[in-house]
Amino acid sequence: MSVNKVILVGRLGKDPEVRYMPNGDAVANFSIATSEQWKDKAGAKQEKTEWHNITMYRRLAEIAGDYLKKGQEVYIEGKIQSRKYTGKDDVERTAYEIIASEMKM
After folding, report:
1. What would the pLDDT profile of 73-87 be if each residue is shown by its tens digit?
2. Residue 66 CB contacts under 8 Å (≥ 6 apart), including other chains
3. Could you tell me the sign of the dihedral formed by the alpha carbons of 64, 67, 71, 73, in that order?
4. pLDDT under 50 in the chain at which residues?
């Protein structure tokens, strides 16, 4: 048995980009930032931000395109997926993205 589940709450880095596949299904892509804060040993405040690439399909993608805007906080639930691609420098790389199945604004 295995589980591939991701839950993120973060802020959009840009407005969603919505496009349509040849079969008419919508696809939305955007990124969200999650941050954590802590104090180091010297007592100085530290912060680390992680960026996550989000992909949504069908009706969820259309809703995201209609209602989500840059800077808005959003709850995303889905799974993590990797894909390989070759960069402009002919080096093979791996990209990770979250395939969203649920969203709460």
Report:
1. 999 999 999 999 998
2. none
3. negative
4. none
